[in-house]
Amino acid sequence: MPHHRVENLSDENRHVILFLAVRPFQVNPPWPSLNMVGGVSPILELDYAEQTIKVMPSGKRIHVLNAPARFLAATFDQGLIMDDLAVGRLPDRTRATDESFGYASGALEYGRDLRPGEAHTVYLQISFHAAAPFPALAKGRGTGGEGVPDTLQIQLASDVTVSPGRIVLHSPLDRPLREVIVNRQPIATFTANVVTLDRFPAEVELRY
Questions:
Q1: What does the alpha-carbon distance between residue 204 and residue 207 come to, in Å, rounded to a whole number?
Q2: Contact, 3 vs 124, CB < 8 A?
Q3: What confidence tens digit (pLDDT) does each residue in 3-36 have?
Q4: Structure pTM?
Q5: What CA dihedral angle connects 148, 153, 155 and 161, to 10 degrees?
Q6: What span, in angstroms and rounded, lies between the C-alpha atoms of 206 and 114?
Q7: Which of 7, 26, 105, 127 could hold 81 in an S-S bridge, CB 3.0 to 4.6 Å?
Q8: Per DSSP, what are the bridge partners of residue 112?
């Protein structure tokens, strides 16, 4: 699961701000392209609601497990969002539609007070396909060490017939599961990091 960790390495309390940007430009160099040509991927629209960023026209979703202070978006003609973030100048909208250029961008903002040696981790769940047989939406609640959620709420839906016990859900966090609740009922069919499901649709709560 993609995650970003911020640690205070100084001997003083610090207020740190982390921006996670969604941009139409590839961050990595072209050679780790994973069968895709690097460069530009159009973003016509960015919309944020209920801890989920919707990216169009790809239809991809970015589920934010740690709720940010805010999400802000901008069109291409408003300027480069990275330049604005560097000087603390932020867009004034939570949704951007850029049909003229197709280069909309946005950023999640996290602000946190960290003591010396303290760290904070932000987790994201990114769907690499617009649709999946078993789409899932995950949200974190509460925080454990380093700001990691101690409870994940996941909504699973299926429009196909599944055989009982055939679907497994892998825990997205590198922590052993303590309890699993499915449709408000505790279940026993789970290990430290794998849950076996036999009912759909399902509201799943993973407790660590």
A1: 10
A2: yes
A3: 788 889 999 999 999 998 888 876 655 555 555 5
A4: 0.61
A5: 90
A6: 27
A7: 105
A8: 16
